[in-house]
Design brief:
The chain has 486 residues and is an alpha+beta fold. It has 10 helices and 13 strands. It has helices at residues 13-22, 27-36, 87-106, 171-200, 204-210, 251-264, 300-311, 365-378, 412-433, 459-480; strands at 44-54, 60-65, 74-76, 120-125, 212-221, 227-236, 266-271, 275-280, 285-289, 335-337, 343-345, 402-404, 444-455. A 5-stranded antiparallel sheet has the order 9-4-6-5-12, with helices on both faces. Strands 1, 2, 3 and 13 form a 4-stranded antiparallel sheet that branches. Strands 7-8 form a two-stranded antiparallel ribbon. The chain is globular. This is Replication initiator protein RepSA.
């Protein structure tokens, strides 16, 4: 029987845990499991089992139990799309988004290649002004013009996007705009079709029977803390990407319809505390044609790359934090129900409802004021359904960062299924090389049971993950430098 290790002399918890892992029955499996995560920063820890049986022969083809792992649990990637949380998983998400967008522009992934001949536009929609902010404008020659404050700001000046006069800046309007931006986008897609029908002099019913409008969009934060949208909009025939649009459905018609929809799409918000507010788009918007031949400024690959890059960003680009400020035990209310049914002050947040005090956040004054405004508006009864205290760290925005119409192209789920099928194919190839009989996937039945344990690594595993990240980064660097030994 192996004697317990005496590691009291090892000061580092990580090193102490790594030594314990190295003395398990299969340290190679420990390192393999961490390496397979490819640098994921916060893997999901699972406990359970899965068994795959051939229904025809009743033979167990594959079986797995997390209890057989040296650490007694299975580690799987977190799948977080945000680069600030997990750079490794966000790269996978960005790659999937790139292929999703590009398939809708040039075909592939079960999308007809003829879509590259359809009218397509890259549209940027922005928020209106809620007060003058520090900016860095340039003239037609590229020369920097002075800001309203009289200074020439550098590109990395932290003052960019902050109000010239914080006392008169409409923080309430800015937060409410973010909170309703997703609804405004939905209203825009409705008015786009109406505007197109009106511009072409036909009814909406006639338009819908002859033309389908497909789109994919992603949200991005501006420095001033307001979201704006980048969207790919495409005209298809009535049956989708497999049919060409009518000859009258041109890029010029799309451009006109976008302008009309931007002007007409509006939402009205009423409140006794702040009065009536109209949520609308800003005056600045762009409609750029996507080149069909790849020789223009905006090609299929460039547009797909833009959208994929934006899809992994969050509100951190505006200088805010990437975590909710809502106290989870009391759900931001500041109180919990005691055994007697009465309201008791929440011990975790001391009645503030905040997981960490807003005044202590390491953010700029402008961002802090937007967070505080979102928190205060969330406590008004008329805005309770917006749950702004939950989304205060997002400066009020609570919509989907990326979305698409059903017929635009493939789905992220379908792309994951392709990866899963590829892994199964690799496993079958390995069985064949080992001399084992291959299986008919159509007759396989899988049963499984899994329980979530926690997230993150053990201290020793974190050291192994850090080495894996270093190796991946080093390999990528050497590839970019054209290392002939790779």
């Amino acid at each position: 029987m192996r004697r317990p290790l005496d590691l009291r002399h090892v000061v580092s918890p990580g090193l102490r845990d790594l030594i314990e892992l190295a003395n398990t029955h299969d340290f190679n499996r420990v390192t393999e499991q961490v390496r397979d995560l490819r640098g994921c920063t916060s893997p999901v820890n699972l406990h359970g089992w899965t068994i795959t049986t051939d229904s025809a022969t009743k033979e167990v083809v594959r079986s797995y139990r997390s209890e057989d792992e040296p650490s007694g649990r299975l580690l799987t990637t977190c799948g977080n799309r945000r680069a600030s949380r997990c750079p490794a998983c966000s790269r996978v998400y960005a790659a999937d988004t790139y292929h999703l967008i590009k398939a809708g522009l040039s075909g592939g992934k079960n999308v007809a290649e003829t879509v590259r001949d359809h009218p397509r536009a890259f549209v940027t929609l922005t928020a209106p002004s809620f007060g003058p902010v520090h900016n860095r404008k340039t003239d037609s020659t590229g020369k920097t013009r002075p800001c309203g404050c009289g200074s020439h700001h550098t590109e990395d000046d932290p003052a960019l996007g902050t109000p010239l006069d914080p006392a008169t800046y409409d923080y309430t309007g800015a937060v409410l705009w973010n909170a309703h931006a997703g609804q405004l986008w939905g209203r825009f897609t409705i008015y786009l079709r109406r505007a197109l029908a009106g511009h072409l002099g036909m009814t909406q019913k006639a338009l819908n029977s002859a033309l389908r409008v497909s789109f994919a969009k992603v949200a991005e934060y501006q420095k001033r803390g307001l979201v704006h949208f980048h969207a790919v909009i495409r005209f298809d025939g009535p049956d989708g990407h497999t049919t060409p649009p009518p000859s009258w459905a041109t890029f010029d018609a799309l451009q006109v319809a976008v302008g009309l929809a931007v002007e007409r799409a509006r939402l009205t918000v009423e409140s006794d505390a702040i009065g009536e507010r109209v949520i609308k788009w800003g005056d600045r918007f762009k409609v750029d044609q996507i080149s069909a031949l790849g020789d223009g400024e905006l090609t299929d690959a460039k547009v797909a790359g833009y959208v994929a890059k934006y899809a992994t960003k969050n509100a951190e680009g505006a200088g805010t934090v990437d975590r909710t400020l809502m106290c989870r035990p009391c759900q931001g209310r500041g109180y919990v129900r005691g055994p007697d049914g009465f309201r008791d002050l929440c011990d975790d947040c001391e009645g503030t409802g905040q997981a960490e005090p807003i005044k202590a956040l390491p953010v700029q004054r402008h961002v802090r004021q937007m967070i505080r405004t979102a928190w205060d508006l969330g406590n008004l009864p008329e805005f309770a359904e917006l749950k702004l205290w939950k989304w205060a760290h997002m400066l009020g925005f609570r919509g989907h960062f990326s979305s698409k119409s059903r017929a635009y192209s493939t789905t992220l789920g379908a792309l994951r299924d392709v990866r899963r099928a590829w892994r199964l194919t690799q496993a079958e190839a390995a069985r064949a090389r080992a001399g084992l009989p291959t299986t008919d996937e159509t007759t396989l039945v899988t049963a499984s049971s899994w329980t979530y344990l926690s997230s993150g690594y053990r201290p020793g595993e974190e050291l192994l993950a850090a080495q894996a990240r270093h190796d991946i980064a080093d390999t990528e660097r050497r590839k970019s430098e054209g290392d002939p030994w790779l």
